[in-house]
Specification:
The protein is α+β, with helices and mostly antiparallel strands. The chain is built from 15 helices and 20 strands.
Length: 535
């Protein structure tokens, strides 16, 4: 065997070994313990249409993001007015809206407000002052472009937060893409607990630390529904371990948020050694750790409420300054609850609530049926092509069939190597590739036949036939490959599944037809000195 044939034989053996290596985890579960640490262990991922799962369309309530931004600005504005020594009677959000209303006792302070807004709050515009019951009221509104920017950023942040949560949840090959300005498409293949997944995705996970006001009469606030200015009424839910009964304990807490979960750098589950119960330990980094230390130092012997999504989780008394920026979140957690809470805290809070507009759960029976039918069509189509090639081209048809088998093997190995997802349209792409692979061999064989009719020897006919067919095959396949890459870049869902197998199939076709088939024929006519071609 010549050096060139040996080089091509080595390349083909290498490609075949790599394909089998990446494909092995998908073919068997009986792998040695050391396999995953040394060799590839990723299986071919099946799409939602094959293995079942969950399909959701979510709507981000971006108006709530504007309201929460208004609340944050309200707190900053109140402090800025104090810093500037501008007297005011009250700063509120009327009707829990996105507007801010400031009440002055004299209209001479309105000019100072306008200067302050222009200096520090350029996203707001100051409305006209009006007098009501001897007081001067001024309303601040978001500028249209500022409100639009807040809504857009909220949708983008929600998309990233949901993606982070799902990645930590461990879903293989999820599809998370924006739809329009405030909607998100989520497809989760292979989900076995849809209820838990929905709770994880939709949880706002807004963590806040606020001081408890122990001087105000909380019982009176509960009885009358009248909450003193600057305070809010929140509840801690306590679960009786023996009976499972839930009781609500009321607290009056300061409206001002001292610290939020956006400073969290780590959240992990720990086991309480005394009670043998899981809790979540959160760690604040950088500025967050300094803030937490300063807050605890300034409020020793006061109660600090740890609030998650508007519900008090616990309200411990600060015994001393807490350095290092760590805090415990305790509760009647199961281990699964604690893990999910740690996931959402690490991934970050949603900037606005999300609402499920559409939900579909695809059962595994539908997926198995789709797999069965898809592979049946692939096998039937493949066998028909294999039989036709042998009947029509004889021994050369058998070479084409071997090339076809190598082609499919390379595609499946490529899917495993690139961690791509096999979908039902992807199976259609493989079937299309089988036809294209056969077409490449047909073009080559017809060229070789033409050369044989001219009286050339088998070796000369093969050289001329492959040389003339190569550019035709390259032109046809490269243009299709470009189309496949465009579909992958701009398509979504099933379109991308089709594009993946089509693109891998084209590359495999070129290798199988132009390298493998050429090697087999060169070996037959050179090493085996074949005197006549069966073509």
């Amino acid at each position: 065997m010549s050096r060139q044939l040996k080089w091509r034989a080595g390349l083909i053996a290498l490609m075949l070994a790599l394909a089998l290596l990446y494909l092995t985890p998908s073919l068997t579960d009986r792998l040695p313990m050391w396999w995953g640490s040394v060799l590839p262990s990723n299986k071919i991922s099946l799409g939602l249409d094959l293995q079942g799962g969950m399909h959701l369309i979510l709507e981000v309530e971006t108006k709530e993001a504007v309201k929460s931004t208004a609340e944050r600005i309200l707190q900053d504005l109140r402090q800025s007015l104090r810093d500037k020594k501008i007297p005011f009677a009250d700063v509120t959000r009327p009707g829990d809206g996105a507007n801010i209303e400031i009440v002055f006792l004299k209209d001479e302070y309105v000019a100072g407000l306008k200067d302050l807004v222009a200096e520090r709050f350029d996203e707001l515009k100051v409305g006209d002052a009006r007098t009501d019951e001897g007081r001067v009221k001024v309303q601040l509104n978001f500028k249209p472009e500022a409100a639009q920017r807040i809504r857009r950023l909220a949708a983008q942040q929600a998309l990233q937060t949901i993606r982070n949560r799902i990645d930590e949840f461990g879903v293989s090959e999820p599809e998370i893409i924006p739809q329009g300005e405030d909607r998100i498409l989520v497809q989760l293949p292979g989900i076995s607990d849809p209820k838990r997944a929905k709770a994880l995705i939709g949880r706002t996970a807004q963590l806040e630390f606020k001081l408890v006001d122990d001087e105000a009469d909380v019982n009176r606030a509960v009885a009358t529904g009248q909450v003193p200015p600057g305070l809010e009424l929140l509840y801690e839910h306590q679960v009786d371990k023996e009976t499972g009964r839930v009781t609500k304990r009321p607290f009056l807490v300061k409206k001002r948020t001292l610290l939020t979960g956006r400073y969290i750098t780590e959240a992990r589950v720990q086991i309480d050694s005394q009670f043998n119960e899981p809790y979540v330990l959160v760690t604040f980094g950088g500025q967050g750790a300094k803030l937490f230390e300063r807050i605890t130092e300034a409020n020793v012997k006061r109660r600090l409420a740890i609030i998650l999504d508007g519900r008090i989780n616990s309200a411990p008394v600060i015994q001393e300054k807490i350095p290092g920026g760590t805090a415990r979140i305790t509760g009647a957690f199961t281990m699964e609850d604690a893990r999910d809470l740690a996931i959402v805290l690490r991934a970050g809070a949603l900037p606005a609530p999300v609402k499920i507009l559409e939900e579909r759960t695809v059962g595994p029976s539908l997926g198995l049926d789709s797999i069965r039918r898809g592979f049946k069509s692939m096998i039937v189509g493949g066998l028909a092509v294999v039989v036709f090639m042998v009947i029509y081209y004889g021994l050369s048809g058998a070479v084409a069939d071997l090339s076809l088998m190598l082609n499919v093997l390379l595609i499946m190995g490529g899917l495993a190597a690139f961690r791509a997802t096999l979908t039902l349209p992807g199976i259609a792409g493989i079937i299309l590739t089988i036809g294209m692979a056969v077409d490449a061999n047909v073009i080559i064989y017809e060229r070789v036949r033409e050369e044989l009719r001219l009286g050339k020897t088998p070796k000369a006919a093969l050289e001329a036939g492959f040389a003339k067919a190569t550019w035709t095959i390259l032109d046809a396949n490269v243009t299709t490959l470009i189309a496949g890459l465009v579909l992958f870049q701009f398509g979504t869902g099933p379109v991308r599944g089709f594009a993946v197998t089509l693109s891998l199939g084209i590359v495999a076709t070129l290798f199988a037809a132009l390298v493998f088939s050429k090697f087999v024929f060169d070996y037959l006519v050179t090493a085996r000195r074949l005197a006549k071609l069966s073509i």
